[in-house]
Amino acid sequence: MIYLQLSTGQAPAECQYFARFALRQMLREAEAAGLDVEILSETPSKHGLRSAVVAVSGSLQDNFAQRWLGTLQWVCASPFRPNHARKNWFVAVSRLPDFPALPEEGEVRFETCRAGGKGGQHVNKTESAVRAVHTATGISVRVESERSQHANKKRALELLAVKLAAQHAEQMGRHAADAHAQLYQLERGNAVRVFRGKTFAE
């Protein structure tokens, strides 16, 4: 299992617009390669996407990750500001730890509730769904995909660990950008993949 994070940081609307395309393209390519792919978290914005964490697994997961890790570049006139001079927009893709550290149960508050959706009377009678809240940060996840409360609780801890790892990576990225602004600008120009125009041709 590989965890990939897409992030635009504090970038403008154009980068967020590009990030939404990048996520969709990532999902399409993963499925075409026969990989299992799941969006673990995403932070949408008015214009697209600020960040997302995707889990990818399969025999070709490492080759797939190498195609995406680094800086993605989109060369196009702004779809939001027609007279804007800038035509280069960037999204960062980084790899999170393979096995994010699980938070201690004392750091997490669990809430149980009835699972929603289809499933007949059994779904409505049992409180198998679990919401886990990391008390220090307020980050939360809700899981109802498993049949038992115990299994949902375990899965919730795993997802919470990934979210915490993603937040930490994003904070470290912002710190590095602030501390090494010139280096950051240089890295943005060294894209691993370049897309062009309104159709995102590569």
UniProtKB/TrEMBL annotation:
Q: Which residues form the Prokaryotic-type class I peptide chain release factors domain?
A: 114-130
Any GO MF annotation of the entry: translation release factor activity
Query: InterPro entries annotated for this entry?
Result: Pep_chain_release_fac_I, Pep_chain_release_fac_I_sf, PrfH, Prokaryotic/Mito_RF
Source species, domain of life? Bacteria
Kindly give the PROSITE patterns that the UniProt entry links to this protein. RF_PROK_I
Enumerate the PANTHER family for this protein: LD18447P, PEPTIDE CHAIN RELEASE FACTOR HOMOLOG-RELATED
Q: What protein family does this chain belong to?
A: Belongs to the prokaryotic/mitochondrial release factor family.
Could you tell me what this protein is called?
Answer: Putative peptide chain release factor H
Which species does this protein come from? Answer: Kingella denitrificans ATCC 33394
Taxonomic lineage: Bacteria, Pseudomonadati, Pseudomonadota, Betaproteobacteria, Neisseriales
